[in-house]
What does this fold into?
Amino acid sequence: MAMESDRSTAPNDLKVQFDERGLVPAIVQDWRDGAILMLGYMNRESLDQTFQTGYVHFWSRSRRKLWKKGETSGHYLLCKRVFLDCDGDVLLVKAEPTGPTCHTDARTCFFAEVTSQGVMTTQVGEEANGGIFERLYEMVLQRKSHPQEHSYVASLMKDGPDRILKKVVEEAGEVVLAVKKEHREEIIHEVADLLFHSIVALGHCEIPMTAIQQELGKRFGQSGIRRTGPEPSR
It folds into this structure.
């Protein structure tokens, strides 16, 4: 990768703008589910080392030295891609963590929620993670452990896996019909229904969305074609 954009269409000849200390803030995001993991600072050397080694490096402002994330804990960040913001003064590093990112052993450094009543830390580690799929999964678990009257998800859980699986199959069929008709809005609606009921099924089995995202991450970039016969003659 190049540190400076080599795209002729980049606005204002975009390039990394290091500050007067030679640093640029770098936001680290889990490339699998979008969770914001941490904020660090990079200088040109740490950015070069990140590209050359594939492991995210930072410049430690307190120790004033190059820092390979995970060199002490063993919880490394494997760099996938690096993006630059429109002003050139902030990096977004998409990475795959090999363990908890925070020194507290939380998955992300952003686990303390700020509210009008102050800083709340009782729900450590979960609320800042991921996106809508994780929120839906948490809701399903909540309905499973604390059923609410008139809750659709609670009623599915109460009726057991057969009803949940019946809904998954039903929604999969609706997706097939919508795609065959090539009706965009209907496809979006039916796929959303299928994903929702699939998340309910995962909640029934208590398999978190992160497990699915990790499995897809393992498969990313690999051929989906498996040979079942002999290799062709060359």
Notes: The chain has two domains: 18-97, 131-219. Confidence is low (pLDDT under 50) at residues 1-8. The first helix runs from residue 44 to 53. The domain at 131-219 is CATH 1.10.287.1080 (Helix Hairpins).
